[in-house]
Amino acid sequence: MSQPSDGSLVSQTQRGETGAFGELVRRYQNSVFNVCYRMLAERRDAEDLTQETFIRAYQRLGSFDNERAFGPWIRRVAANLCLNHIKAQKPATAMIDDERYYQYETGENNPAGKQQRSEEKGNIRAAILFRLNSFNFWRHVEIRK
Q: Does the residue 119 lie in any domain?
C-alpha cells in the first residue's frame, strides 16, 4: 500500500483530520531536528525549537500553499525560528565613554519575563513531546482540551 503524499496529508489536516498532521511530524521530525541542531549546536535548544516548529506549522497550515512542497517549507520555518532564537540570545550592548561596553537589561533579559517564557516553553514542550515520543500524540492533546 502506498503512502499518502505530503500534499494529501496537508489537505487532510486542513480539513481537521489531526492524525494526518501526526504523520507529517513523523516524516519530518528528524530533518527539522537536524536543521535546528546544525544551526544551534545545542541539543536541548534544537529539541525545543523542533517542537516549536511543528506547533508553528500547525497553527499556520491554513495559509500553506498546497502547490508547494511541505518539506522545504517546514525546514524554512525551523530555520527562521532558529535565527530568531540566535538573535534573541545575543546580549544587547551599549557603548559607554572610553570605549567600554556594558550589558544592559532588556525586556528579554528581565527575570520575570524569562520565567514566564520558560513556563510557556515548558507547557509547549510537554504538549508536543508526547507526539515526538509516541504516535498517540493527538489522543493526548484531545484529552488536555
A: no
Neighbours of 78 (CB within 10 A): 26
CA distances (Å), 26 to each of 20, 122, 137, in order? 10, 21, 11
This prediction's pTM: 0.62
Look at residues 72, 69, 71, 80 and name the one whose alpha carbon lies nearest to residue 39: 80
Cα 35 from chain centroid (whole Å): 11
Q: How far is CA 119 from CA 87, 99, 104, 112, 125, in A?
A: 21, 38, 24, 11, 10
Structural domain includes residue 25 = yes
Task: With CA atoms as reference, report the closest residue to 131 among 62, 70, 75, 55.
Answer: 55
Q: What is the pLDDT of residues 56-110, one digit of tens each?
A: 999 999 888 888 999 999 999 999 999 999 999 876 554 444 444 434 444 455 5
9 membership: H or E segment, kind and range: helix 6-14
Question: What is the count of structural domains for the chain?
Answer: 1
* 68 three-class SS: coil
